[in-house]
Amino acid sequence: MPYTFAEENADAIALHVIESDALDAWLSAQDEAVATWARLNGFSGTLGQMLAVPGDGGRIGMVLAGYGTAEKRARVHFPLAHAAAKLPEGTYRIASGLPDEAAETECLGWMLTGYRFDRYKSKSTKPHALVPPAGVDTARVEVLAEAETLIRDLVNTPTADMSPADLAAAAETLAKAHGATFDTIIGDDLLERNFPLIHTVGRASATPPRLIDMHWGEVGPSLTLVGKGVCFDTGGLNLKPAGSMSLMKKDMGGAATVLGLAQMIMALNLPVRLRVLIPAVENSVSSNSFRPGDVLASRKGLTIENNNTDAEGRLVLADALALADEDSPDLIVSMATLTGAARVAVGSDIAPFFTDHDALATALSSAARKIDDPVWRLPFHEAYESKIEPAIADLDNAPTGGFAGSITAALFLRRFVSQSRYVHFDIFAWQSTNAPARPKGGVGMGARALLEALPEMLGL
């Protein structure tokens, strides 16, 4: 992470954050040379505008960062990052203008502005450092930035280097770093241990399917995170067209996100008993691929008519959720890049979630607004239950009709959880265009909102 925090020092360049409608008042309080320079260079405080003001000896004396209007800031993530991305190399300090309530989120945006997925490149990024405003918990911000970096790196890595085995290795590295216990159930052992759906979906791959199981913490309420770890999704025998397959390295975005959230929880030493479950598979095509029309067994005993091999994520999650439910934890959260219907409903920027528990939903929604990690509640609509009940089995993994696809998928998953304190996220895990602090590629969705809400959700 080439963007870092720094201690106060004499060489730090003053960075003034200026809203458009506050510009005239700010300029009137400055030396005439500063005001004249700003006016001559057309500085207006527009969001993302950056102007370096010369100082002594040809050095930068200060930098003006446009902060726009409240209306414009509401349309973007990390508004200050829009100017920070244009700064020349150096160390900066926030001298004025940044609202206290936005300081922590904007400092996180500063850190993430430096993110680059450079695993396959030799070019390095120029360093930037920030002396943060007083009162910002820089240790916490650094934890959030590191976890977001983990999520992005995992999602961005091509499947050749992020197979189910590689995903398990990344989870094990995280577990060891924080003193967590780690276990995996691999290949045919999944059948011996009664995880038939995970085995069925992943058995056609050259890399055997597996269930990743990590435990951390000995005190406090119990929290189980379940992440979809489909490391590549061809669609199986219901093969995806090329255009739909190009981003399928990101189909383990749910797994990446729960690992990022787990890193936050462990690094911040939250008083919880944490469990992370990730069914890690590759949905491939081979002579032993599962077929449309097959009736599949599940860990819970429910039978499933498999009407589309491209609706495999809910199958592997079903076995993992059944295991999670057996321990009756205080809260279960699943995260998955599950349906295109969720994107149609809320777009690529919002993480929709489902829960029957109103207090959990309220806590999540409030936390998301506070820390700029947008979420939106969708309903477990009871009237659609019949859509997931086929004629010859207990459940249908791919109801016909095409309507309410995200809801029917969520209802399917809910059949494997017996308690009401369950939250399911249907995320995209991908930034489609370049934006400050959010370059095109993998991105975390919902993890920071969950972290912020956990104290209320679990009574910490």
From TrEMBL:
It comes from the Bacteria. It holds the Pfam family Peptidase_M17. Belongs to the peptidase M17 family. InterPro entries: Leucine_aapep/pepB (IPR011356), Macro_dom-like (IPR043472), Peptidase_M17_C (IPR000819), Peptidase_M17_N_1 (IPR048816). GO terms for cellular component: cytoplasm. GO terms for biological process: proteolysis. One of its GO terms (molecular function) is metalloaminopeptidase activity. It comes from Sedimentitalea arenosa. The keyword Protease applies. This is Leucyl aminopeptidase family protein. Residues 308-315 form the Cytosol aminopeptidase domain. SUPFAM superfamilies: Macro domain-like (SSF52949), Zn-dependent exopeptidases (SSF53187). The keyword Membrane does not apply. Keywords: Aminopeptidase, Hydrolase, Manganese, Protease.
